[in-house]
What does this fold into?
Amino acid sequence: MKKITILGSTGSIGTQTLDVIASNIELFKVEHLVAGNNADLLIEQALKFKPKSVAINNLHIDKVKSNLDGTGIDVFDETKIDMIASDNVDLVVGAITGSSGLSPVYNAIKSGNDIALANKESLVCAGDMIMKLANKHKVKIIPIDSEHSAIFQVYSKQQKSGLEKIILTASGGAFVDKDINFIKTAKLQDALKHPNWSMGQKVTIDSAGLMNKGLEVIEACYLFDVKVKDVDVVIHRQSIIHSMVSMKDGSTLAQMGYPDMKTPIAYALSYPKRIYSGVNTLNFYEMNNLTFEKPDLKKFPALQLCKNSMEDGNGKPTILNASNELAVEQFIKGNILFGNISEIVESMLSIINSKTPNDLQEFNELHNETITKTKEYVKSINIGNS
Ligand code: MG
It folds into this structure.
């Protein structure tokens, strides 16, 4: 049985991971569950999967402890997450959203645990550091992000000399048919209307501005050891092809399926084998046309910002990620408009000097400096409405 730790067990990826595990309960043993604030769900998960330990934000620890009393399950607060991630298991699922997922993933790699990575931000904000560490400890990083799972399924690094392009598909997000003025002044409820995928709030908002696709270009560069120029983005509204690689011999290989995160999750859990995920295979007789379009960079400046920051290197992706995280948080609170997000990120990229962080401390310094400066900048924005 594969021993699994889930970082972020009560979020969208975490709950779907446990669904796949429940369908294959003879193959997996849940060792540790780490959650943020959803105590009720963590308690339910712990009682069902009987892990060795769980962790939750200190605010909820008494509730979780009293509910798990007598079960033998250890209950820790958030200060022990790195320790839990370091415990040796067969696979750690990194599904904590944002840069707060970095430290536990880093510690899991350091102790030699293979990673199923949903948390793209940890690669965006510290990709050099993470990939170096993974190589040093011979740790496999298996992507859960659907596009990268698709590429991982159809391409291996041994074929690199024959690779022409990695092609990331994008549904286009909530604003694909909106005009530029609508997008600039859009509010939270508009951005959350994702056409195809059911995902967490942060990634849905990132998707609406193609920021998510830009972050995924950076993620692909690190995971597959390619340059920005080797990665194209194509709008494919139906989200049936999850990404492709074009090879020098004229072949293009695609991975297809209904848009359901349980497919890439199941592959990451079972790799190199295949298991039941609960997702049906495609019915081609019922499928409409598949369409492909160029992304509109005027409407979606975030995509280019991501590409530029990756090409510049020198810590720019760290700045991009931190300022975007804070901007999205402010957008959720209603303090800024949608168009402000990419404006904020662009300003931070131009005013902060940086170099590539080599360890967690250097990362934290640059991340925190960016957060401080982004907060100052947000205060200066007057959105002129409420
Ligand atoms: Mg994705």
